[in-house]
Design brief:
- The protein is of the alpha+beta class.
- Helices cover 43% and strands 11% of the residues.
- The strands form 2 sheets. It has a 5-stranded mixed β-sheet. A two-stranded antiparallel ribbon has the order 6-7.
- Helix 7 crosses helix 10.
- It is elongated.
- The N and C termini lie far apart (95 Å).
Length: 287
């Protein structure tokens, strides 16, 4: 009886090994085909661009040590950094990992550290950069794999400022709009453009040294609602109380790094300074 069990286990192990080998061979052939197609494409290109991509995979032995891989990409007019990464993934290494979605600088998912600066891969033109283009994950964030970083902490900071509209002053009519003046809309317009890419948070030296600091993106989101007159003075006071905490607006040292890297040109530092003034005014007492 035991002999039959051993034989059965041996057959199962043999089948698993065979399946594994078959899969590995298929992957090897696929990589070879990709490389061959890439060589064909490169041979017909007028110019090739070189990118150096940060690589790291904690789950694969031999890839746990960070390194840079270099790829030669056929350059075409209008090519973005994201285009180059997609080409490298599709033609050279299917395991190359990075985030992207809309490809129109709206979703904020492909924020990267490109040539020493936080940028959106889909918005950054290869022709505007010095080659070889060095592409790394956002600094001051835990790297999950290759160019992907853990965004959980960033999202927690954003949620901490209650980034949604709240008011007790609703219109009387059920279908009546809660109108906003043109002047007030203009005041908060720029702050509404935030796409949660975390480029500003990554560039902030204060956030790098203080894990509890709300950060420029979260404070900007608080500004968007605190300055919206439709919420009312009570909610404005509530939001000011959130951002004037020890790890709130007062930690900002006005370095302007967040404003410089924002892909949507939001005056983040200006908004933070205005909230500081509002916090001071809310604490003034006259008697």
């Amino acid at each position: 009886m035991s002999t039959q069990i051993q034989e059965s286990e041996t057959e199962t192990e043999t089948e698993e090994t065979s399946e594994h080998q078959t899969r590995r061979l298929a992957e090897k052939r696929e990589r070879a085909d990709m490389a061959e197609r890439a060589e064909t494409d490169l041979s017909g290109a007028d110019e090739t661009a070189r990118i150096k991509v940060f690589r790291y995979d904690p789950e694969v032995e031999g890839k746990k040590d960070p390194r840079f891989d270099t790829f030669e990409i056929p350059f075409t007019k209008g090519m973005t950094v994201l285009d180059a990464l997609i080409y490298a993934r599709d033609h050279f290494d299917s395991s190359l990992t990075f985030r992207h979605s809309c490809r129109q600088a709206i979703c904020g998912s492909d924020a990267l550290f490109i040539n020493g600066r936080q940028r959106l891969g889909c918005k950054t033109q290869m022709v505007d950069l010095e080659w070889p283009v060095q592409i790394e994950p956002l600094p001051h964030a835990e790297v999950v794999k290759d160019l992907v970083v853990d965004m959980e902490h960033f999202y927690d900071q954003m949620e901490a400022v209650e980034p949604y509209f709240q008011t007790n002053d609703l219109p009387d009519g059920e279908l009546e709009e809660q109108k906003q003046t043109r002047e007030n809309r203009e005041k908060v317009k720029m702050s509404t453009r935030c796409i949660w890419c975390s480029a500003c948070m990554s560039s902030c030296n204060i956030a790098a040294g203080d894990n509890k600091y709300l950060g420029p993106a979260a404070i900007n989101k608080a500004y968007r609602f605190a300055m919206d007159h439709r919420e009312g003075e009570d909610m404005k006071e509530h939001r000011i109380n959130i951002i004037e905490q020890e790890h709130g607006v007062w930690r900002c040292q006005t370095q302007f790094s967040c404003t410089e890297v924002c892909p949507k040109d939001i005056p983040l530092t200006e908004h933070i300074q205005e909230l500081k003034r509002e916090a001071v005014k809310s604490n003034l007492k006259f008697w």
